[in-house]
Write a structure and sequence with these properties.
Blueprint lengths: L11 H4 L11 H4 L11 H5 L8 H8 L15 H11 L4
Length: 92
């Protein structure tokens, strides 16, 4: 997920100013227990890992919006869904 805003600085190397991670604005909705570190430079801003969310975080963010719950694994067969939950949920 990426923020709905442009990269903060056209010439980031010269400014040398980190910016607060935009996900900190929705920290509670994502279920984060601590704030994310500031983004230090354009390389971090452009790195896809900076914007990664877990399935649980994405479901938590979307759940309750419009009165419905979202389950991204619901369309999978039960055996595959169970396998993924058993294997992935402990690490995500």
């Amino acid at each position: 997920m990426t923020p709905n805003k442009t990269e903060p600085f056209a010439n980031w190397p010269l400014t040398g100013q980190p910016i607060p991670h935009p996900f900190n604005e929705i920290q509670a909705e994502l279920g984060l227990t601590a704030t994310l570190p500031d983004i230090q430079n354009a390389v971090e801003w452009r790195n896809p890992a900076t914007w990664q969310l877990t399935i649980k975080q994405l479901e938590k963010l979307i759940d309750g919006r419009g009165g419905r719950k979202i389950n991204f694994l619901s369309s999978l067969p039960d055996n595959i869904r169970t396998y993924l939950k058993d294997q992935l949920y402990p690490i995500i």
